[in-house]
Amino acid sequence: MAEGERKRIVVVGLGLIGGSLALALKGFEGYEIVGVDVSQPTLRFAAEHGVGDRVTEDAAAVLPGADVVVLALHPRGILRFLEEHRARFKQGCLVTDVCGVKSAVMEGAGVLPEGVDFIGCHPMAGTEFSGIEHAFAEMFQGSHLILTPRESSTPEHVALMERLGAYIGCRDVYKTTPEEHDAMIAYTSQVMHIIAVSVCDDPMLFACRGFEGSSFRGCTRVAALDVGLWTELFSLNRPALLTVLDRLMENLGAYREALASGDSGKLAEKLAYSAARKREMDLPGPDLLQ
Q: Collapsing DSSP states into helix, strand and coil, what is residue 70?
């Protein structure tokens, strides 16, 4: 690097998460933050609202000078980008992503040449909205940052990701395997979205408009999802998500059986069991992600 030349972080994809990241990273350790997107309206909005230090549509022009590249695209978009641009990444640079599935992305990163590091990353933050107009720098405050390094990932790059997480406001960093990440996310996030959209498929939905309680609104909050994104997330995490769905259907079946039996004692016993598990989960104690 020439004397006086700034280190560079390139954020590819300026949607809700990528745009928020480009905002949150401004000033980080002297890096220049460059946003990349193919949408002209997105680029105009980003330039007008100071998303990053500068923006461009030309990924090929900025990748060779990037010390860190963050891929904030849909999952299949990440795989295509890695394949298309694999020869443009600088030797010694770090490539990461913010995708909600890790096994498929980590496998796709196998196309990168030797000397280009890849660390899977998933900031546990977001909203039910999409698009750069909803991005905000405080998005990651208090969130967990999950990392799935390769066995060959350097300690320096892992430490860089930990400092980056602290800078954008994450409460902690949790390192795990892609498989454990995908199993956990299938249960804590993906199946919740399936529950939400399934509830909205009920014919009672519109008849009950205006009579929804907070529990209904909470349950269905994420149902107005980005169809393209969640189709990819569900599809690429199919084995883990099917396992969770099978368990959920067994649990729902057990509740239906208890209710259909007319045995209120059996129903109360099952409710007490479930409620106690939730209360135990919420008890103060060590955070598993610390």
A: strand
Distance of CA 223 to the CA centre of its chain: 17
| Sign (positive or negative) of CA dihedral 50, 52, 53, 57 | negative
Identify whether 289 is part of a domain: no
Classified as helix, coil or strand, 286 is: coil
Q: Is residue 290 part of a domain?
A: no
- Per-residue pLDDT of 69-90, as tens digits, reads 999 999 999 999 999 999 999 9
CA dihedral angle for residue 127, residue 129, residue 132, residue 134, rounded to 10 degrees: -70
Domain boundary among 125, 159, 176: 176
**Chain centroid to CA 128: how far?**
12
Q: Which of 176, 211, 228 is the last residue of a domain?
A: 176
Altogether, the residues listed in the chain come to a count of: 290
Show the DSSP H helices in 39-138 as ranges: 40-48, 59-62, 75-85, 103-108
AA identity, residue 249:
M
Shared domain check, 185 and 171 = no
In a domain, 80, yes or no: yes
CA distance 180 to 122: 13
Q: Convert the pLDDT of each residue in 185-221 to its tens digit.
A: 999 999 999 999 999 999 999 999 999 999 999 999 9
If asked whether residues 122 and 92 sit together in one domain, one would say yes
What integer is the mean pLDDT of 55-68?
97
Residues 63 and 144 grouped into a single domain: yes
Amino acid at 232: E
Report the b/e string of 102-132 with b at 16+ CB within 10 A: bbbbbebbeebeeebbbbbbbbbbbeeebeb
Q: Do 170 and 63 lie in a common domain?
A: yes
